[in-house]
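Long-time lurker. I teach an intro course on protein structure, and each term I like to show students one example going from raw sequence to a predicted 3D structure in token notation. This year I'd like something fresh instead of my usual example. Would anyone be willing to generate the tokens for the chain below so I can use it in lecture? Attribution to the forum is fine with me.
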Amino acid sequence: MTQTVNRAGSSKIEDVVEEPTVQTPVSVEEAVTQVIATMPRMFRTIKHQIRSAEAGGPSQEVGDTQTWVLHALATGTQLTSELAKRFNVTTPTITRMVDGLVDKGYIKRRPDSEDRRRIYLELTDAGWEATRNINELFRSSVARFLSPLSERQLADIVVACRHLQTLLPNDGYDYSGLCPPRPAGSNIETEQEDTITNTKEN
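-- Reply from a regular --
Happy to contribute to a lecture. Here you go:
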């Protein structure tokens, strides 16, 4: 059973969660079945919520992989070859993704001042705005998806994710900066409804 501890000044679940005591042995096969049955459906549902909430916005204009390119460039200027290595694809493949984002005005190319053969990629002002918009909408949609769960159930999810993180390789990418936490006091339901209302009015 998951235990929670109240700590003064702390509003983060991950700060108050203790490891649950496993009362019933679970096999790897059972865990595999649950992960396969849950994760794809969960992200399809969240993606549908995002698409429904923002008709015509950046999340509608860019694909999943292009979204990751925007996130990568939000960490700093990079060469095309560096992006290709990060996403484990060929340079021509990443170039096609980048071309689409350049056409949309989200990315610009900047030649190296000392070596014109080296072309750096960086976000435009519109690219920064699109990335922030996508981050906020994704976090809002995930929060809305999880909001029916109890505090104890949410604590279990935090612990499970921590376990999964120990199995993931260190690819040198800082995922902690993706979809930064919402400001204290913000209301998930109200902001989501406002987004949908504004979309309909426009």
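Some talking points for your students: Residues 58 and 133 are 7 Å apart (CA to CA). The two ends are 48 Å apart (CA to CA).
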